[in-house]
Amino acid sequence: MKAVVLVGGEGTRLRPLTETMPKPLVPLMDRPSLDHVLDHLARHGVHEVVLSSPYLEERFEPFIDSRHGDPAITWITERSPLGTGGAIVHALDALGSDEAFFALNGDILTDLDLSAMREFHLERGASVTIALHHVEDSRAFGVVDTQDDGRVLEFREKPEEAVPGDINAGTYLLDPSAITGWTKGEQISIERDIFPAVIAAGHPVFG
Hints:
The chain contains six helices and eleven strands. It is α/β, with parallel strands linked by helices and about 210 residues long. The model has no long low-confidence stretch (mean pLDDT about 85). The strands form three sheets. The protein has a seven-stranded mixed β-sheet with strand order 5-4-1-6-10-7-11, with helices on both faces. Strands 2-3 form a two-stranded antiparallel sheet. It has a two-stranded antiparallel sheet with strand order 8-9. The two termini are about 20 Å apart.
């Protein structure tokens, strides 16, 4: 099992810490927070991870050199910011086309059961599975509408009123075939560009 971890953000809300240190490398407890993310992936059978970032790229090298065991890390250079979707498309060659892979934000710490998410993905025959989180006030987020069986109908913009809803939690399981038509090296949003296009093309997308 493989994964791409998105670590390219500039961490503007944590400045000045992130002016010299990428947000995923900011220490949490006794080590960089990215260590916790990678260990969580390893516990759920992920053996290879792809990382890329155009921001403070050189700061990741000592971190990668210090890691041992699962998951193995492949670094690919991202010369300019590509967005969430663009970074994933950029990593496709390193991820291969054989099986679905996880994609997740590298600055989110979660106890999400990735093994159960993979079982759900396979049972539904999904092309894309999106981890969702229910909130009582969705004004700060876009809302993901689903059917009773979990199939995603659409992504709605941030509501103006305080209404409950399911929001994108930043962890995905993607079949490579669902996103192979995008041009590498372009800035692409997975939420605004890729997911709506995959749904419009009739691919099964579940939450």
